[in-house]
Every structure is written in structure tokens, then in C-alpha cells.
Amino acid sequence: MASGFMSYAQVPAIEAENDSISTIEEKKEHPLATGYYPLGFFNIDFKTLIKYNQYEGLRLGLGGITNDKFSEKFRIGGYAAYGFKDKDTKYSLGGGARLNKEKKVWVNLYYTNDIKEIGAFDFLTDARVYNIFEPRLINIVQFYKYRNWYANITSELSPKLLSEFRIEHSNVDNIESYYFINHGKAFHEYQLSEASLSVRFSPKTNFITTEDGTREYYDGFPKISAQITQGIKGIAESDFSYTKFGLKLDYYIKRTDLSSTSIVFEGLLANGDIPLTHLFHSYPNQPNKPNWTGRFSVAGLRSFETMHFGEFFSDKVMTMHIKHSLRRFKLTEKWKPELVFLTRHAWGDMSHQNQHFGVPFNTLDQLYNETGVELNKILFGFGLSFAYRYGFYHMPALEDNISFKFTFYLKI
User: Fold this and answer.
1) Which domain CATH number covers 166?
2) How far is 221 from 10, CA to CA, in rounded Å?
3) Is residue 336 within 8 Å of 322, Cβ to Cβ?
4) Please, are residues 306 and 388 in contact by the beta-carbon 8 Å criterion?
5) What burial class does residue 326 get, using C-beta atoms within 10 Å of its C-beta: 0-12 exposed, 13-18 middle, 19+ buried?
6) What residues contact residue 381 under an 8 Å CB cut-off, 6+ apart?
7) In a domain? residue 43
8) Which residue, 21, 137, 351, 397, is most buried by CB atoms nearer than 10 A?
9) Which residues touch 158 (CB under 8 Å, ≥6 apart)?
10) Long-range contacts of 89-95 (CB under 8 A, 24+ apart)
11) pLDDT tens profile 283-341
12) How far apart are CA 388 and CA 400, in angstroms?
């Protein structure tokens, strides 16, 4: 991540003001750039401090991880949080040991008791992203509880290639009145054992070596992320067997006229006996409110602004996001708004929709389309976003096809 902190809709993963090695200065990153604040031998994680969502309401917590002042070979981390609406405590605790400093090989073991959004899929090797606002989080309505043990080994085989291998066991308790019908039996609670391998290849990454080791200074595009997960029935009383694949291509073009275009393509596929909690949505971000004024909120990073939460789920889905940013308008020395054009598309399907009972949803067996525009950094980092839903999934009422939200961008 760049040394400046960035938070706004459709932000490129990494930006650099100048790609020349001769201009690089060694300087300490601002805490808002990483989301960590060092306090002695412990780095406090800003992401754990305060959150808000529709299930927990206000969530307050504290967490972080030890740094090199504690040990260069071992680390301990975790968090504890409390939701004031569900009146429940969540926590995580674990640690790791470094096996190889040059290749940044760590082996870790963690236990977590928390909630997670239904249908969310994460690439394990995606870079950590910290934002003051977590845009979609405040609008999410469908969660499940889980208790999870996982062990993993992470490595940076080169600055261009990141990898993680993980094994984990989860106990899932559904919050929704959801049942997964499998071989004539209805499962509301279930256990899952999984093994995952994830890699991320960044062929244009450049780096320098400092006294502290290898430090990435310009992370170029394209980026290629791939992941495979195997659910194994019978291990530690696991209930289901399945396979999940994920592939993501992230391409960013920066031009000499200071305009830029980013293209993100993602494909996900699942095969086997998989409950809805572990299938895929398409990152919707339209609050489930009756009119457009009630749906005014913050636009997401890579989300479908006109797609309602819980509207679509898939066991196979492809999405494409294209963003074109014009050169910023220099109205004054400090006032430089940015005009951005966006188009997003999704297609998916569900092979055995009748296995999922209690949570109504549609499939994406036709192409989903939305197009929009953003005017970012109008005042104090805030801007406006507008998107329109069209095509096969166009709604009868005009206002149901419209998304009007604000964006947020801050650079320190």
C-alpha cells in the first residue's frame, strides 16, 4: 500500500506518485496508511476499534499484533469486540512463528469466534486494505456465526509472488432461518473442514532492499489472484464435501494525461454439497429500504450499488468492474475534484437452488448491468456517486433502479 492513506470508491489497490527508484525516501508510514498504531511492542489494529452493521449495531473492540520489539521470530495477535445490538462478544486469539526471514515464511495458528456475511468470498493473499469507512459493512443484513480453528503457512517466494496454504475447521450456526437440505436431511448448524491454497502474482512489482529487509515501493498491474478450497467430509466430523475455485485479474492503466482506467475481472465456481453461507454473492451494496432517500449511504470499493443485499446468490459467478477516471479538475490549488465513469456487470447461476430453504433469493442466470458516475473529492474528501440498473434485471419502478450515495477519499 502506498505511504499515503486512501479511502474512496473503486480505489486502485496501490498508487505511486513516481516510479523512479532515485526518488524513494525512507520514511515511517502514517498509522492511517496501514491501519496499525505501534504502542511499544504491540501494534494496535484500527480495524478492530469501531464498526457498525445491521446485526450488531455499534461494535466496539480492541485488537492488534506484537511487533519486532516483542520478538523477530514470534508474534501474538487477536482481538475482542462487543456488539451493542446483538449483545454478544466476539474474539480471536493466536500467534505465529517465522521460519524464514528472507522469504517471509510464517506459520500461524488462530482461533476465532465471530460473525461473517453470508456468501462472502475472500482471496487469502489479497493485500490488507484499511479504510476509515468500511462502506458495505454498515448495510449488510445477513450474517452467520462461526467458531473456527485455522493453521496456515504464508510466504513471499518473491516480491512478485505471494502464497498461503491454510487448513481450518469451522462450526457454523445460522442466524437466519436457513436450512441446507442435503440427502434428505435439513442442516441449520453444521461443521466444515477445509484446505485452501491461494497465490497472488504481480509481475510488475518492483522493490528495493533496505536495512529492514525487502520493501515493495511500486506495485504495478496486472495482478493475478487464484485460489482453490477443498471441503472434506468426515474429517473432525465435517458434514460436507465440495470444491471452490476463484480467479481474479486486476489491471490498471495510468496515462500521461493523468487519466486512468482500471479493469477487475473475477470468476468463482463451486461444486459439491455447499450451504448458502459458503457460496457466492456479487458484493451488493443497495440497502434494503423502500425508497431511494432511505438508501442513501456510502458507495463501496468494488460493489454493485444498485443490487440489493440478499437479492442474488450463485454457485458460479463472473463479475467485471471497469472504472475510468479523468484528470482531476484544478479549480483551486487545494480543490481538485475528480470525475469517474463506472460500468459493472455480473452473470451467474445456481445448480441446486431447491437445496436452500428459508432464505429467498434469485439467481444471476441473465446478465446484470449497472452504469454510473462519481464526482469524488468535492469537499473534505467527500463526493457523490450515482448508478443506474438496466437490462434484464431492470425494476418496474424507476427509483428502484437508482443508487445515489456519497463517496469518501482522504489522503494523508
Assistant:
1) 2.40.160
2) 15
3) no
4) yes
5) middle
6) 7, 8, 408, 409, 410
7) no
8) 137
9) none
10) 90/61, 90/114, 90/115, 92/63
11) 999 988 878 777 888 888 889 999 999 999 999 999 999 999 999 888 887 888 999 99
12) 9
Whether 186 contacts 174, CB under 8 Å: no
Q: What is the CA radius of gyration of the chain?
A: 22
CA nearest neighbour of 262 among 226, 307, 300, 223: 223
Give the list of residues 6+ apart from residue 19 with CB closer than 8 angstroms, or none.
206, 218, 220
Q: In DSSP terms, which residues pair with 163 in a beta bridge?
A: 155, 199
All three cell numbers of 408: 469518501
CA distance 14 to 226: 19
The count of other CB atoms within 10 Å of the CB of residue 257 is: 8
Does residue 216 carry a pLDDT above 80?
no
DSSP per position, 346-377: EEEE-TTGGGEESS--B---S-EEEEEEEEEE
What does the CA dihedral 248, 411, 296, 327 come to, rounded to 10 degrees? -70
Residues paired with residue 224 on neighbouring β-strands, in sequence order: 201, 249
Beta strand 42-45 with 57-66 is antiparallel
pTM of the model: 0.85
The 10s digit of each residue's pLDDT in 256-289 is 888 999 999 999 999 999 999 999 999 999 988 8
Whether residue 11 lies inside any domain: the answer is no
> Which structural domain range is residue 280 located in?
21-34+101-408
Q: For 236, phi and psi rounded to 5 degrees?
A: 55, 40
Residue type, 54: Q
- Number of structural domains (the chain) is 1
Q: How far is CA 298 from CA 134, 202, 249, 317, 405, in A?
A: 9, 30, 25, 25, 5
Indicate the residue type of 154: T
Reported confidence tier of residue 215, pLDDT bands at 50, 70, 90: very low
CA distance 333 to 197: 48
Give a yes or no: residue 65 inside a domain: no
In a domain, residue 94? The reply is no
> How far apart are the C-alpha atoms of 348 and 393, rounded to whole Å?
13
- The dihedrals phi and psi of 33, each to the nearest 5 degrees, come to -75, -35
**Phi and psi angles of residue 23, each rounded to the nearest 5 degrees, phi first:** -100, 0
